Amino acid sequence: DGGITQSPKYLFRKEGQNVTLSCEQNLNHDAMYWYRQDPGQGLRLIYYSQIVNDFQKGDIAEGYSVSREKKESFPLTVTSAQKNPTAFYLCASSILGQTEAFFGQGTRLTVV
Amino acid sequence: KNEVEQSPQNLTAQEGEFITINCSYSVGISALHWLQQHPGGGIVSLFMLSSGKKKHGRLIATINIQEKHSSLHITASHPRDSAVYICAVRSASGSARQLTFGSGTQLTVLP
User: Which pLDDT belongs to residue B98?
Assistant: First the structure.
Protein backbone atom coordinates (compact mmCIF):
# COMPACT_ATOMS: atom_id res chain seq x y z
CA ASP A 1 0.00 0.00 0.00
CA GLY A 2 1.17 3.51 -0.78
CA GLY A 3 1.70 5.90 2.06
CA ILE A 4 4.01 7.86 4.30
CA THR A 5 6.03 6.18 7.01
CA GLN A 6 7.50 8.06 9.92
CA SER A 7 9.82 6.45 12.38
CA PRO A 8 10.16 6.07 15.22
CA LYS A 9 6.74 6.72 16.75
CA TYR A 10 8.26 7.77 20.08
CA LEU A 11 11.74 9.16 20.61
CA PHE A 12 13.56 10.24 23.73
CA ARG A 13 16.78 12.21 23.70
CA LYS A 14 18.97 13.99 26.18
CA GLU A 15 19.23 17.75 25.98
CA GLY A 16 22.08 18.88 23.76
CA GLN A 17 21.96 15.89 21.42
CA ASN A 18 20.98 16.09 17.76
CA VAL A 19 18.28 13.68 16.67
CA THR A 20 17.02 12.71 13.20
CA LEU A 21 13.42 11.85 12.41
CA SER A 22 12.73 9.68 9.41
CA CYS A 23 10.04 10.26 6.76
CA GLU A 24 9.66 7.98 3.75
CA GLN A 25 6.92 7.99 1.10
CA ASN A 26 6.16 5.63 -1.78
CA LEU A 27 3.47 7.79 -3.36
CA ASN A 28 5.84 9.26 -5.96
CA HIS A 29 5.04 12.72 -4.61
CA ASP A 30 7.37 15.56 -5.48
CA ALA A 31 6.55 17.76 -2.48
CA MET A 32 7.27 16.86 1.14
CA TYR A 33 6.73 18.83 4.33
CA TRP A 34 7.62 18.79 8.01
CA TYR A 35 5.25 20.23 10.59
CA ARG A 36 5.48 20.68 14.33
CA GLN A 37 2.42 20.37 16.57
CA ASP A 38 2.24 21.76 20.11
CA PRO A 39 -0.75 21.48 22.45
CA GLY A 40 -3.45 24.03 21.65
CA GLN A 41 -1.71 25.24 18.50
CA GLY A 42 -2.16 24.53 14.84
CA LEU A 43 0.49 22.67 12.91
CA ARG A 44 3.38 24.92 11.98
CA LEU A 45 5.56 24.43 8.93
CA ILE A 46 9.24 23.75 9.61
CA TYR A 47 10.66 22.96 6.16
CA TYR A 48 9.35 21.87 2.80
CA SER A 49 10.83 20.48 -0.38
CA GLN A 50 9.42 20.55 -3.89
CA ILE A 51 12.19 18.66 -5.63
CA VAL A 52 15.19 16.50 -4.88
CA ASN A 53 18.21 18.41 -3.58
CA ASP A 54 16.16 21.52 -2.89
CA PHE A 55 14.25 22.64 0.20
CA GLN A 56 12.86 25.83 1.71
CA LYS A 57 12.46 27.14 5.24
CA GLY A 58 9.01 27.30 6.71
CA ASP A 59 7.78 29.46 9.56
CA ILE A 60 9.82 27.88 12.36
CA ALA A 61 13.00 26.53 10.73
CA GLU A 62 15.46 27.72 13.38
CA GLY A 63 17.16 24.81 15.12
CA TYR A 64 16.18 22.31 12.45
CA SER A 65 17.84 20.97 9.31
CA VAL A 66 16.67 18.73 6.46
CA SER A 67 17.97 16.97 3.39
CA ARG A 68 16.30 15.69 0.26
CA GLU A 69 18.77 13.37 -1.44
CA LYS A 70 16.05 11.04 -2.72
CA LYS A 71 12.49 11.73 -3.82
CA GLU A 72 11.18 9.20 -1.32
CA SER A 73 12.95 10.49 1.76
CA PHE A 74 12.93 13.77 3.69
CA PRO A 75 14.64 13.34 7.09
CA LEU A 76 14.45 16.09 9.71
CA THR A 77 17.27 16.73 12.17
CA VAL A 78 16.43 18.48 15.40
CA THR A 79 19.66 20.12 16.47
CA SER A 80 20.84 21.17 19.89
CA ALA A 81 20.15 24.76 18.80
CA GLN A 82 16.41 24.15 18.94
CA LYS A 83 15.44 25.66 22.27
CA ASN A 84 12.23 23.75 22.85
CA PRO A 85 12.36 20.53 20.83
CA THR A 86 9.81 18.46 22.74
CA ALA A 87 6.81 18.25 20.40
CA PHE A 88 4.87 16.09 17.98
CA TYR A 89 6.33 16.10 14.47
CA LEU A 90 4.33 15.30 11.35
CA CYS A 91 5.56 14.67 7.84
CA ALA A 92 3.33 15.14 4.79
CA SER A 93 3.59 14.85 1.04
CA SER A 94 1.61 15.96 -1.97
CA ILE A 95 1.73 16.10 -5.73
CA LEU A 96 3.31 19.42 -6.56
CA GLY A 97 0.68 22.03 -7.32
CA GLN A 98 -2.14 20.03 -5.79
CA THR A 99 -3.74 20.75 -2.46
CA GLU A 100 -4.35 17.21 -1.32
CA ALA A 101 -1.81 16.25 1.32
CA PHE A 102 -1.07 12.87 2.83
CA PHE A 103 0.22 12.68 6.38
CA GLY A 104 2.39 10.25 8.27
CA GLN A 105 1.54 8.93 11.72
CA GLY A 106 3.88 11.33 13.44
CA THR A 107 6.85 11.11 15.82
CA ARG A 108 6.56 12.27 19.40
CA LEU A 109 9.94 13.62 20.50
CA THR A 110 10.70 14.13 24.16
CA VAL A 111 13.93 15.78 25.18
CA VAL A 112 14.93 15.30 28.79
CA LYS B 1 -5.15 37.05 15.02
CA ASN B 2 -4.77 33.56 13.58
CA GLU B 3 -5.63 33.17 9.91
CA VAL B 4 -7.74 30.12 10.73
CA GLU B 5 -10.01 30.05 13.76
CA GLN B 6 -11.96 27.00 14.91
CA SER B 7 -14.79 26.74 17.40
CA PRO B 8 -15.40 25.25 19.78
CA GLN B 9 -11.98 24.22 21.08
CA ASN B 10 -13.49 21.34 23.02
CA LEU B 11 -16.81 19.59 22.51
CA THR B 12 -18.39 16.77 24.49
CA ALA B 13 -21.51 15.09 23.12
CA GLN B 14 -23.70 12.11 23.88
CA GLU B 15 -23.81 9.27 21.40
CA GLY B 16 -26.38 9.99 18.70
CA GLU B 17 -26.18 13.77 18.90
CA PHE B 18 -25.73 16.00 15.85
CA ILE B 19 -22.40 17.80 16.01
CA THR B 20 -21.19 20.96 14.33
CA ILE B 21 -17.64 22.26 14.26
CA ASN B 22 -16.95 25.68 12.77
CA CYS B 23 -14.00 27.17 10.93
CA SER B 24 -13.48 30.80 9.97
CA TYR B 25 -10.59 32.11 7.95
CA SER B 26 -9.35 35.54 7.04
CA VAL B 27 -7.54 35.08 3.73
CA GLY B 28 -8.64 34.28 0.21
CA ILE B 29 -8.34 30.55 -0.29
CA SER B 30 -8.21 28.08 -3.12
CA ALA B 31 -9.25 25.12 -0.96
CA LEU B 32 -10.17 24.14 2.57
CA HIS B 33 -9.45 20.81 4.24
CA TRP B 34 -11.09 19.07 7.13
CA LEU B 35 -8.71 16.64 8.81
CA GLN B 36 -9.16 14.09 11.59
CA GLN B 37 -6.42 13.33 14.11
CA HIS B 38 -6.85 10.27 16.31
CA PRO B 39 -5.26 9.88 19.75
CA GLY B 40 -2.27 8.09 18.24
CA GLY B 41 -1.49 11.27 16.32
CA GLY B 42 -1.88 10.24 12.71
CA ILE B 43 -3.90 12.57 10.51
CA VAL B 44 -6.32 11.62 7.75
CA SER B 45 -7.97 13.93 5.29
CA LEU B 46 -11.78 13.89 5.50
CA PHE B 47 -12.73 16.49 2.93
CA MET B 48 -11.25 19.00 0.55
CA LEU B 49 -13.65 21.79 -0.42
CA SER B 50 -13.50 24.78 -2.68
CA SER B 51 -17.24 25.45 -2.80
CA GLY B 52 -20.62 24.09 -1.74
CA LYS B 53 -21.05 20.93 0.23
CA LYS B 54 -19.66 17.41 0.43
CA LYS B 55 -21.00 14.34 2.19
CA HIS B 56 -19.31 11.11 3.17
CA GLY B 57 -21.28 8.71 5.30
CA ARG B 58 -22.30 10.54 8.47
CA LEU B 59 -19.99 13.46 7.78
CA ILE B 60 -21.02 16.61 5.94
CA ALA B 61 -18.80 19.58 5.16
CA THR B 62 -20.00 22.93 3.88
CA ILE B 63 -18.21 26.09 2.87
CA ASN B 64 -19.37 29.66 2.27
CA ILE B 65 -16.65 31.43 0.32
CA GLN B 66 -18.23 34.89 0.64
CA GLU B 67 -18.46 34.61 4.43
CA LYS B 68 -15.08 32.82 4.71
CA HIS B 69 -16.63 30.11 6.83
CA SER B 70 -16.88 26.34 6.80
CA SER B 71 -18.67 23.82 8.99
CA LEU B 72 -18.16 20.13 9.62
CA HIS B 73 -21.26 18.23 10.72
CA ILE B 74 -21.43 14.74 12.17
CA THR B 75 -24.82 13.08 12.24
CA ALA B 76 -25.70 10.29 14.68
CA SER B 77 -22.38 10.71 16.49
CA HIS B 78 -20.61 7.65 17.88
CA PRO B 79 -17.80 7.23 20.42
CA ARG B 80 -15.47 6.21 17.60
CA ASP B 81 -15.86 9.76 16.22
CA SER B 82 -13.88 11.00 19.22
CA ALA B 83 -10.83 12.72 17.79
CA VAL B 84 -9.35 16.13 17.06
CA TYR B 85 -10.83 17.75 13.97
CA ILE B 86 -8.63 20.24 12.19
CA CYS B 87 -9.49 22.83 9.58
CA ALA B 88 -6.74 23.86 7.17
CA VAL B 89 -6.73 26.29 4.27
CA ARG B 90 -4.60 26.79 1.22
CA SER B 91 -4.08 30.41 0.26
CA ALA B 92 -5.40 31.55 -3.09
CA SER B 93 -1.93 32.88 -3.83
CA GLY B 94 -1.03 29.28 -4.54
CA SER B 95 2.06 29.24 -2.38
CA ALA B 96 3.88 25.96 -2.35
CA ARG B 97 4.08 26.34 1.43
CA GLN B 98 0.91 24.34 1.51
CA LEU B 99 -1.58 24.66 4.31
CA THR B 100 -2.38 26.95 7.24
CA PHE B 101 -3.96 25.05 10.11
CA GLY B 102 -6.47 25.84 12.79
CA SER B 103 -5.68 24.72 16.34
CA GLY B 104 -8.23 21.91 16.21
CA THR B 105 -11.44 20.92 17.98
CA GLN B 106 -11.22 18.09 20.49
CA LEU B 107 -14.42 16.06 20.17
CA THR B 108 -15.41 13.50 22.79
CA VAL B 109 -18.52 11.41 22.19
CA LEU B 110 -19.75 9.59 25.27
CA PRO B 111 -21.63 6.30 25.05
Answer: 67
